[in-house]
Design a protein that fits this description.
Shape: globular
CATH class of the largest domain: Alpha Beta
Structural class: alpha/beta
Number of helices: 11
Strand content: 15-25%
Largest sheet: 7 strands, mixed
Number of strands: 9
Radius of gyration: 20 Å
CATH architecture of the largest domain: 3-Layer(aba) Sandwich
Distance between the termini: 63 Å
CATH topology of the largest domain: Rossmann fold
CATH superfamily of the largest domain: Vaccinia Virus protein VP39
Helix content: 25-40%
Strand order of the largest sheet: 5-4-3-6-7-9-8
Length: about 280
C-alpha cells in the first residue's frame, strides 16, 4: 500500500469512529510510525509501505479509536517544535503550555546565564524547552515521581541539554534550602489545577491516560498554588520572576495569592483560545 492511501485509510477510520481530530491524528500516527515527517507523508504519498508496517499502523489506529491518545500510543508528544518522550508518570504536554514558554522567553535575554526551577517537571517539556531556547541557562527540575524524572532526564539527553538539567525528587521546594541566597531567576510550573470533583467528568482520553497526580488540584483546584506560591516567595531574590500555568477561571485567586506573598508586576496572559492561561509575577 502507498503511504498516501494508508494515511487516507486511517483518517477515514478515525472520522467514521468520531475521533475528535481525525486528520492531524492520522497524519501524526502514520508519519511517526513510518519514520518520516508529516510534510514528507504528503509530498511522498506514492512511497510503498510493506504489509507488516501496514498491519502495525492499523493496529495502532484501533487503539486510537478505542480512546487512547496518539501521544500515548507513540510514547511521545510534540511540544514547542520538539518531540518529548512520555511514560505512565508524565502528563502529555499540551499546546496551551507553550503560552508559558513564550512568556518566559519574551522576558528573558538568551545572553544571560540564568537559573530556573521547574516545579512538577513531568516529562521535562518546560525545563528542556527553556534550556534549549536559552543556551546559557541551567535548570533544577523537581518532581515527586522518580519515574517522571527518569523520562525528563532522557528528554534532556535527546535535546542536548542534559549537562544543564538537574533532576531532583522532592515535594515542591521542601528539599531546598532558602537560607543561602542562591535562589533562581525564574520559578516555572504547570501544577495540577483541576478540581477533584471535575476529574471524573474529563474525557476518557485524559482521565484514563494522564496521571491523576498531575491533574488533581484538590477541592477548589488551588492546592498546588497554596503550597507553591509562599514557598517560591521565600526563594526568589528581588527582581526574580515566577510563571505559573493556571486554569481559565483561577486568575483572580492566584493573583491575590501572589500579592499576599510579596510578588508584584503581575500579568495574566491568555492562550491562543483567549482564555487566562499564565500568571507572571516579579519578586518586589
Amino acid at each position: 500500500m502507498q503511504a498516501g492511501a494508508l494515511y487516507r485509510l486511517v483518517r477515514d477510520r478515525f472520522r467514521n469512529a468520531g475521533v475528535a481530530d481525525p486528520e492531524p491524528d492520522a497524519k501524526l500516527l502514520v508519519s511517526t510510525l513510518l519514520g518520516i515527517g508529516i510534510s514528507d507523508l504528503l509530498l511522498d504519498a506514492s512511497r510503498e509501505v510493506d504489509a507488516a508496517r501496514v498491519r502495525e499502523i492499523e493496529e495502532k489506529a484501533s487503539l486510537r479509536i478505542g480512546g487512547m491518545p496518539v501521544g500515548r500510543i507513540l510514547g511521545e508528544r510534540e511540544f514547542y517544535g520538539r518531540r518529548f518522550l512520555l511514560n505512565s508518570a508524565t502528563l502529555e504536554p499540551r499546546p496551551d503550555t507553550e503560552t508559558l514558554i513564550d512568556a518566559v522567553l519574551r522576558a528573558t535575554s538568551p545572553d544571560l546565564p540564568i537559573t530556573l526551577w521547574d516545579i512538577g517537571t513531568g516529562s521535562g517539556a518546560i525545563a528542556v524547552t527553556l534550556l534549549a531556547e536559552l543556551p546559557r541557562s541551567r535548570a533544577i527540575a523537581i518532581d515527586l515521581s522518580e519515574t517522571a524524572l527518569a523520562c525528563a532526564m532522557e528528554n534532556a539527553r535527546q535535546h542536548g541539554v542534559a549537562d544543564r538539567f538537574h533532576p531532583l525528587c522532592a515535594d515542591y521546594l521542601e528539599a531546598l534550602d532558602a537560607g543561602d541566597g542562591s535562589g533562581p531567576d525564574w520559578i516555572v510550573s504547570n501544577p495540577p489545577y483541576i478540581r477533584s470533583s471535575v476529574l471524573e467528568r474529563l474525557s476518557p482520553e485524559v482521565i484514563d491516560h494522564d496521571p491523576r497526580l498531575a491533574l488533581d488540584g484538590g477541592e477548589n483546584g488551588l492546592d498546588a498554588y497554596t503550597a507553591l506560591i509562599p514557598q517560591s516567595a521565600r526563594f526568589l531574590r528581588p527582581d526574580a520572576r515566577i510563571a505559573l500555568e493556571i486554569g481559565y477561571d483561577q486568575a483572580l485567586t492566584v493573583e491575590k495569592q501572589l500579592r499576599q506573598h510579596g510578588l508584584g508586576e503581575i500579568e495574566i496572559i491568555k492562550d491562543l483560545a483567549g482564555k487566562d492561561r499564565v500568571a507572571l509575577a516579579r519578586k518586589i
